[in-house]
């Protein structure tokens, strides 16, 4: 019998406070044993842990993610759950299609246009920034990816569903059931869209690149077979959902700009470099992904501890970003720490560590940073007013966000 009691319930109730609490009780070491979902687990922390975790000889993904997370956040059969050659070939779908600088620029331009149009439509009114940004991002990603949506109501529904899938993955209550319904609805719609492309019922893109929808419809896995309709829908959603989820970061960005007026002024005066540094600092300071996880591929040793095959291995994400050994004054919000430089592969791990092409690191990191920088840069010039509201960010809720969602009053005329 493993000596530690199962922490699943504590994790569900303490949220982001669970990992730091566990580490503190065990002397803040780089490897802390635990028990989660009925199996032995090890919580890893620090740069050596990042290298260890992202070595496929150590940690595999198949069977690591619990069903309730797959049925809400990622989808059954998603790239997240694959290993080895099967993973590498599926991953190319994301890295070759999404990582082109032109594709990222196009999406950034569309996101900015849709967001500014949304703001214009809200003149003289109050709105919740989190919700409206999600809709603008959904509109942008549909246009960019070639995914058909009937009208504005369908875009709003897609935005709400994508938010629900992220919001409900780590809770057993009503948010979870909402997330499951959202996933079923969107998987069905996207499977129809892929089927339409395959039978030639929609016009192919006129540009020199296939759209994301066309690329997914045409993709062949390592065994040479096309994705079945369900898996194709799952992977399309693995593009749409996280792009809409950038609303978590832009909402945190609005929170930071409200609390740090000096940063707001620097961003207002900026011509690009500071906005990118600001985006990195938002990803470092605000909690979103609590940890990433996999299963020990064989019997291993890390930092003098035996790790038996099949142990659930978790890598601490928010703790890494607040470690005083890695960051001078870690609790200070200071975008200048990233000014004129990009973070190293194991430095900022908000979207995973290691290499995005060969490992499980997020393939959407360039998109996230570019969209976050572009959209945040619009905020200081919009003249948005924040009325009294609860901007507290509860640590017990995964994923968390400012309680109010950041309510803004949009001026009647642009200033
Ligand atoms: C994987 C975070 C945006 C697509 C991941 C991982 C994290 C992450 C932590 C897992 C790393 C691991 O398991 O080791 C985020 C955050 C985002 C974001 C916080 C901000 C909203 C995006 C975007 C896209 C995307 C914009 C696509 C356009 C994916 C995919 C994977 C992934 C497909 C699976 C990669 C694999 O297993 O090989 N993301 N991501 N994500 N992300 Fe993101």
TrEMBL record:
The keyword Heme applies. Its cofactor is heme. Keywords: Heme, Iron, Metal-binding, Monooxygenase, Oxidoreductase. PANTHER family: CYTOCHROME P450 26, LANOSTEROL 14-ALPHA DEMETHYLASE. Belongs to the cytochrome P450 family. This is Fatty-acid peroxygenase. It comes from Streptomyces polychromogenes. The lineage of its organism: Bacteria, Bacillati, Actinomycetota, Actinomycetes, Kitasatosporales.
